[in-house]
Amino acid sequence: MTRIVTQHLIVTQHFGNEQAKQLAVYEQLGGYAALRKAVSLTPQQIIEEVIASNLTGRGGAGFPAGKKWSFIPKDAETVYLVVNADEGEPGTFKDRWLMYWDPHRLIEGACIAAYAIRAHRFYIYIRGELVRELRVLEQAVAEAYERGYLGPSMAGSGWAMDAVVHRGAGAYICGEETSLLNSLEGKRGYPRLKPPYPALRGLFDQPTVVNNVETLMNVPTILERGGHWFADLGFPGDGGTRAVALSGHVKSPGIHEVPVGTNLRSIIFEQGGGMRESGKPLKAVIPGGSSMPILSAAEIDVPYAFQAMLKSEQIREVEQAPGIKFRWGAGGTLRSMPGSGAVTVIEEGTCMVALCARIMRFYAHESCGQCTPCREGSGWLAQVCTRLARGAGRRGDVDLLQRVAGQIGGNTICALGDAVTWPMLAFLTKFRGEFEAKEAGAAP
Ligand SMILES: Cc1cc2nc3c(=O)[nH]c(=O)nc-3n(C[C@H](O)[C@H](O)[C@H](O)COP(=O)(O)O)c2cc1C
Ligand code: SF4
Question: Do residues 61 and 144 share a domain?
């Protein structure tokens, strides 16, 4: 893995240092100082610092972390924090490395966040396939108990804190926060209708915050250096850095931590070293995991930040079926987003119909089946896209894709419905010619 070292490294600063996963070494490197500071503050002071930092969720939706914590009722008796380490979005591979290289940073961040929302227990829900990372985490949790950062008196504060590492069973849908909560409770991993949101009724019906691994790993640095320092490092309304998981037809794939708002082109051509040696130019980029609308090569001169990409005039609006408005985005329109921080680089010569079909098959396979539009719609999109890609399409298939896709997003229990609609419509908006060419070659 290649990485360009900058002075802004936060969550990847211990990458490559095998020793840093030992508690004693982590402490020597300054670890757990933020937790000791945190317990000298009130929970409200911590929440205010995190609000000032403009830390947004790194799991995909970009919701402000401090604001989410502030929704927990102050008089709640039992509160939980759940760390989402399920990492299933295609293209995304940052959390597994963050946990592998720096497990104590996650534990420290989770302890601070749990204390801020007045929880005495947090769960780490880790994707079942990540066996190596599970072992690293379990070892780190055991060390933290031994050293007194976890247990009856967290860092000598008198505040009890427990951590439970729970292994998922490899279902993508269990990364969706309410499905994750059901799975953690031992039930089938079906997403719940919202509202009520987890902040009011979450795990075991108690107020709960669910945060992504990377989100929480930023928290110790926010307490050490201050919320304003963190906010200034990033982009207006979107503080800090992103651990970008760069993959595809690029010279230096891997995790590249960059300040939020770094130009997407420079992430690919400077951090990532540009296109691989095939000699083929850039064709397209999936900017934030496979559910995020794809960008053409002409649309990548944008700051890698949520609001910036949602509103950027550089990015073409995704065309939807008439009369249907997206739930997210500015005024019911949709451009794109950095999502889970996974940037997939695609070179000329790639068949966009085949690529889209591959993505649709993934979502059709992973749909939990509760909602008809998602269950049936994703299946049909996968089938029609696949037959087009294989040269066995039928006349009218492209219009069919547009109509079906437009009726899924916004009409389902969870955002997997959007994760089907958005890429499908974006592929049709940006690369419709390729779909039509496939259809034109189709049998009547
Ligand atoms: C289908 C689906 C899968 C998801 N998978 C993940 C995941 O693997 N990891 C993650 O952190 N968030 C995932 N999310 C987002 C979570 O529901 C939730 O928004 C996130 O964990 C909140 O943490 P954050 O605010 O720190 O980003 C997924 C959402 C959906 C709709
Ligand atoms: S949108 Fe899809 S994945 Fe989500 S609850 Fe409905 S059927 Fe399940």
Answer: yes
